[in-house]
Write a structure and sequence with these properties.
The complex is a heterodimer.
Chain A lengths: L1 H24 L6 H9 L12 H10 L12 H12 L14 E5 L9 H5 L5 E2 L7 E2 L9 H5 L5 E5 L19
Antiparallel strand pairs in A: 1-4, 2-3
Chain B lengths: L24 E2 L5 E5 L9 E2 L6 E2 L4 E4 L8 E2 L4 E10 L7 E9 L19 H10 L12 H11 L3 E6 L8 H8 L1 H15 L3 E7 L3 H11 L4 E6 L8 H9 L14 E5 H13 L5 E7 L7 E6 L4 H7 L9 E4 L6 E3 L12 E5 L1 H4 L12 H5 L6 H9 L3 H6 L10 H5 L6 H70 L1
Parallel strand pairs in B: 1-14, 9-10, 9-12, 10-11, 13-17
Antiparallel strand pairs in B: 2-8, 3-5, 4-7, 5-6, 7-8, 13-14, 15-16, 15-17
Classes of the chains: A mainly alpha, B alpha/beta.
Chain lengths: 178, 492
Amino acid sequence: MIAALTSLTILGVVLGLILGVAARVFRVEGNKLAEEVLGILPGSQCGQCGFPGCAGAAQALAEGRAPVTLCPPGGRAVVLALAAKLGKDADMADVKESVPMIADVKEEICIGCTRCFKVCPTDAIMGAAQQIHSVFREACTACGKCEEVCPTESIKLQPIPVTLQSWYWHKPLAGNTL
Amino acid sequence: MKLFNLRGGVHPEGRKDLSADISVRVLPLPKYLFVPLQQHIGAPATPVVNVGDHVLKGQLIAAAQGAVSSSIHAPTSGVITALGDHAAPHPSGLPVPTITLESDGNETWVKTETVADPFVLSAEEIAARVASAGIVGLGGATFPAALKLNLSRNSGVQTLIMNGGECEPYLTCDDRIMRERALEIVEGIRLIALAVAAKEVLVGIEDNKPEAIAAMQSAAKGSEVKVVSMPSMYPMGSEKQIIQVLTGKEIPAGGRPADIGVLVHNVATAFAVQQAIRYGRPLLSRIVTVSGGAIKAACNVEALVGTPVQELIEFAGGYSQPATRLVLGGPMMGQQFTNTSVPVVKGTSGVLALTSKEIGQAEASPCIRCSTCVRACPVGLLPLEMAAHIRTSNLAGAVTLGLKDCISCGSCSYVCPAHIPLVHYFNYAKGDLATQERAKLKQEATKKLAEARNERIARIERERAEAAAKRKAARAAKEAAAKEAAAKAEVV
């Protein structure tokens, strides 16, 4: 009995040690590039790119399986950042976002069903059952999840209204002048 | 006094004689005043009145909100008829939140507090009164004046420079205020100097305004205020340039005057400060130059904030010939506009109606790399190279060349023999970069929100599972207890 206990304990300890050391020595490095790319992506896990969340998209980008223009909510800034990170040319023609969008609630037809704010990945919608919902513009990434679940088509993506703060001169329409 | 050399600069035709020799007249009280909530850099003010309220002249109608903001007062007595949108005095002409005031014609003042000897007030007290009077920089940048006072006092300013440069062509509003209200301005300057504990006080005035220099010199006699005549050149009235000319110091790239121990204020701001401290009068009106080749009788008028620009043009006799371009401010850095119902705001220095001859607009032709723009740039940049980068959408390249140090003075566009809209390129690029910056900040913020939400959902699920497990255990214990009791009962 004692011999069996001792031998099994020793066996356990030795095997455990071997496993522990092996885990350290032969550790598989995660894809560093993918992690860095993940840092650039919005992180709202909206799934519009067709990959399972931002981590999946980052993996695909790092492996070169996806174009840098895959992220609609990220917009132009993310495309440029990704292109710089991955050393690719950003083909802006693929960026559909000609105008930045934002979710907007049509208050007359909102029934207060709470579906939209349950799916909002950034908690950008405020509301409660039977209450009109409302969008925090600063937090909305225009991922469009709310639009999909809204039963009355009350919440819709709209172009962000231009304000005095965001307005700026257009690019000069110069031909061959420089 | 020794003056220092300035790099670059241009000498546009002044055309100040159109309005310089006519004294300031007070504009008749308009029926409606449109007072925008944002007339300053920073957050817009919050209205503290409702539609239908009767307000007195000088009464607070919108309070400052946030760290950088300024309060707004009723320019005259009357009834608030609307809190809504009105076209902004801005090239975009976008609607902005505006308080509409219908004047009752009585100009009844709110009770104001006069101070017999303002020089016994503490520095903090002066800054607080300047803040509550809603004073902003009247040179055009409209930065809240009290904030600048506090920042400068905390960082220990040595030199106070009062800007009487007025280097923009056509504009004579600062010239006139210095000629007509020199004593008040000097008192205001001394109050500002007291508020920031400045050791040296300089008033820089371009030498094309000899009457203003004489008036200021006689008003400043016997005080620590020193009036300095500077050579006339554009952009002498720019903050960075006036500091360089008077002190020889250059503000580091991306820095502020306070970094080198200097504070710059406009002379008209000093007048507003004097009125606020001595008479308790908030900033309700300003002097506006109405000029340009298309204006019948160019002049300077004292207009209430909120007065539609149309009334100023009519007061100056209307148009003598078709105006091709309307400009708010000076012709070099001013903002074009088309809708004359836009109001005069705290930062409106001029209303210009220019003829097509004055604009001299011509089709842009290819750059011949003559580098005239490089010689004209007062900051020492390479406008032609920067514009070439921006044209090919390489904004980062333009930033490397110093785009962020560009003061948008327009000297490069003015001298370009090929009529390339250089400063237009820079303004576009700055706007685009600011938008990108905002998008980046928003993305960082939303990312944090998404992470917080994911964490919360995980926590809620975990807690739910734990609670369910607890309930299950409790139920099992209860059942076991019931069984035992039943067994006992059977035994008995």
